[in-house]
Amino acid sequence: MPHLHEERIISKAMARFQRVSARKARLLADLIRNKRVSEAQRILQFTHRPSAGSMVHNVLKSAVANVDHARFPNAENLVLGEVEVNVGPMMKRMMPRARGRAARIRKRFCHISIKLVE
Asked: Which domain holds residue 86?
């Protein structure tokens, strides 16, 4: 049985294995959650987060492109319902340090998903 406040998902897009840490991408996801598409695009355009900004923006553009334009001609008025950034796998590398030791370098990945609702 559907909930009273459940919204219908119009479109969704996902980018997996993005080469940025989940924490950096989550900062942007928190900024654009529950905003209209046009407002979210403006926020992403003027927010200085070079590492994750283009990745989140590309997923948003993909979600807008996935909208059935016959039923929803104005996709800019849709709302970003669910914006998730999940942790992906981690590449582990070693870096030489002093006195014959080694330090671990963690190259982190994340999965970004956006769902547009009415």
From this structure: 9-117
> What are the CA-CA distances from residue 35 to residues 20, 40, 78, 112, 114 (Å)?
23, 6, 9, 17, 12
CATH code, domain carrying 100: 3.90.470.10
First-last CA distance in the chain = 19
Predicted model pTM: 0.87
Q: Which amino acid is at 53?
A: G
pLDDT category at 6 given cuts 50, 70, 90 is: low
Q: Give the 3-state secondary structure of residue 12.
A: strand
Q: Helix 22-32 vs helix 37-46: angle between axes, to the nearest 10 degrees?
A: 130
CA distance 92 to 84: 24
Please tell me the least confidently modeled range out of 3-12, 15-24, 79-88, 104-113. Answer: 3-12
Within-domain flag for 1: no
